[in-house]
Amino acid sequence: MTLLRRLLFGVAAGLPGGAVLALVTDPPWLSWAAHTVVLGAVLGLLFGGHRQSAGSAFSVGLLVGLLDWVTWTLTLAPALDGRTPSWSIAVAEARFPELVGAALFGAIAGLCLHALWTWRPPRPAPQRAKPHVVIVGGGFGGVGAARELDRRIGRGLDAHVTLISDSNFLLFTPLLVGVASSTVEARHVSAPVRAGLGHASFLHGRVVSIDTRTRNAYVSAGKEGLLRVPYDELVLAVGGVPHFFDLPGVGEHAFALKSVEDATRLRNQVLSALERADLEPDPAEQARLLTFVVAGGGFAGTELVAELFDLVHDVLHFYPRLHGLRPRFVIVHAGERLLPELSPELGRYAQRKLGGRGIEFRLGARVSRATATDITLDSGETIPTRTLAWTAGNRPNPLVQQIAQGPLVVEPTMRVPGTPGLWALGDCARIPDSAGGTHPPTAQHALREGKAVARNIAAVLGGRRPEPFRFGGLGVLVSLGHRTAAGEIDGRRVSGFLAWILWRSVYLSKLPSVEKRLRVLADWTLDLVFARDIALSTTTTHSTHSSRTTVPTKGDRHA
Question: What is the pTM of this model?
Answer without folding.
Answer: 0.75
